[in-house]
Inverse folding.
């Protein structure tokens, strides 16, 4: 007999207990309650996990639920939408049996109807390759993701890296760059402060949106609740930390998460050196896959930079979207268009577009 639960932060021990029942490669850091809670704390969303069980199999789907009425729309009752926390999401489960996946879809759609969910947006996980598990939100190929199979360092150096990566790493060594790796509880408050300063310097230089300028509370929550799932690598020049990468990890998968570099030290080639040393540290710790993400658009400079570390492995990134109540969704879009006086072009491709550009109240 199939059953489902919808858990929240207060149920986190039960949530983690279900996660522990998945195969090791499915016990991904993005599915931890502590990770999803980070983004609940950043806004008005609430962190949840949908758990579906049938005949000994289990599926988990963490998400953020948000109240649309808080945006100021004139609606007849409470409505909500859903998206994953920053990073990758979708379903992790013990089986891809068609009957189980169909049952999951039926249960999910039933719950969404009960909860007056209007729309949903998913960023499928390219490491778990879970894009076919949410039948209600068929996968849409959008970008390429850079995935590195962590086999042996000799194979990676000779066959995964391109020539420019190897050349930059060698030049960085000639400049005398050194490296330190810090996992979990070994990350000190001083090292966290160094990382935060390097990251903030980089985001400000790039004129990043306010979303990426994380608060002190965000970093404190990372340390307090997710320290065992963090790895920070530092590159040093003359003993000074000049570049840092932060990784998320759980099970056998690791993800490039945040990074920062002092631009005055670009001449030492720190970024590729840092990534190479980070890969060595992940290999030594027994991880099997590293996802480096992708770019903002297909084949842009960011993607090409990352792809140079994994020349021989193709990995795609998919999104999923579902409109659960088209009538209400269209009414919200009508009101949104009026509020923006028809100037919707910058957001029109977004599923949850009505959340953008609406700082002014309805008049």
């Amino acid at each position: 007999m199939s059953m489902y639960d919808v858990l929240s932060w207060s149920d986190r021990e039960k949530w983690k207990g279900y996660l522990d029942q998945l195969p090791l490669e499915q016990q991904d850091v993005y599915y931890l309650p502590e990770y999803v809670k980070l983004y609940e704390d950043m806004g008005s969303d609430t962190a949840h996990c949908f758990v579906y069980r049938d005949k000994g199999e289990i599926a988990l789907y963490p998400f953020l639920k948000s109240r649309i009425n808080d945006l100021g729309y004139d609606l007849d009752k409470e409505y909500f939408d859903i998206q994953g926390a920053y990073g990758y999401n979708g379903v992790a489960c013990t089986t891809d049996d068609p009957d189980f996946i169909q049952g999951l879809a039926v249960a999910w759609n039933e719950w969404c109807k009960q909860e007056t969910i209007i729309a949903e947006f998913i960023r499928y996980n390219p490491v778990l390759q879970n894009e076919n598990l949410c039948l209600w939100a068929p996968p849409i190929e959008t970008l390429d993701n850079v995935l590195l199979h962590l086999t042996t360092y000799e194979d990676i150096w000779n066959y995964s890296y391109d020539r420019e990566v190897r050349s930059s790493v060698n030049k960085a060594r000639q400049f005398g760059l050194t490296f330190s790796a810090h996992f979990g509880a070994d990350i000190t408050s001083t090292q966290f402060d160094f990382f935060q300063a390097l990251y903030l310097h980089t985001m400000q230089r790039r004129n990043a949106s306010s979303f990426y300028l994380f608060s002190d509370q965000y970093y404190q929550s990372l340390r307090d609740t997710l320290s065992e799932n963090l790895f920070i690598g530092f590159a040093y020049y003359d003993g000074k930390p000049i570049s840092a990468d932060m990784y998320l990890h759980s099970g056998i998968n690791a993800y490039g998460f945040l990074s920062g570099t002092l631009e005055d030290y670009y001449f030492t080639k720190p970024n590729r050196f840092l990534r190479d040393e980070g890969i060595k540290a992940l290999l030594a710790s027994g991880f099997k896959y590293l996802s480096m993400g992708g770019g903002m658009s297909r084949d842009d400079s960011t993607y090409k930079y990352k792809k140079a570390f994994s020349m021989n492995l193709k990995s795609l990134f998919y999104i999923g979207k579902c409109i659960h109540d088209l009538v209400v969704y269209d009414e919200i879009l009508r009101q949104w268009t009026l509020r923006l006086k028809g100037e919707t072009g910058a957001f029109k491709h977004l599923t949850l577009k009505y959340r953008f550009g609406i700082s002014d109240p309805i008049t």
In short: The radius of gyration is 22 Å.
